[in-house]
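Our working data are protein records whose layout never changes between entries. An example says more than a description, so a record of this kind follows.
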Amino acid sequence: MSISKGHFITFEGIDGCGKSTQVKMLVETMNNIEKNTILVREPGGTNISEEIREILLHRHLSDISDRTEALLMTGSRAQLTYEIIMPNLIKGKNVVADRFYDSTLAYQGGGRKLNLEWLIKLNHFATYELEPDVTFLVDILPQEASKRKAKEEDRIERAGIDLQSLVRNAYLELSVRFKERFVVIDGHDTIENIHGSILAELRRRNILQ
């Protein structure tokens, strides 16, 4: 779906890959060069979406079913897309998202083994068929990502390296399937080098001048 005057840039990766750092750096850089840009994160970003986030990531709600998890994720995303992302894009602002629908395809599809084609249709419905202009996948080995994470883990992070390995493989498969949109970045590189690679790719796509 093309409704925007602004650019929509998404970041993906397993927990602990370093994407949130890159999201903040990119938003700061874009605003410094007068590219009016906002940051959104998932799940969350609106009052309703933050309430859903509390349920999704609560450490003690381990009995949430895989389908409930997928529906809650996409419900939170639907509200964020409707309330924040689309209105800002229409106004000409750029939106940088710390996760979008590829997270559901990777975590609930690859990780929880839900049907990928069903999840794609569900997310098209939830996001009004909005597509990112570019998606950066910060790729890192799960063992390395585990070393970087805080000790206090949320419900999904507590599933451990086995889940993160499945999710990483799913992300890599998505990067092949949607190769025009995905850009895979080596998350083992330095923070500065990763940021530089992201800026270079955005210039190549004429998102930055």
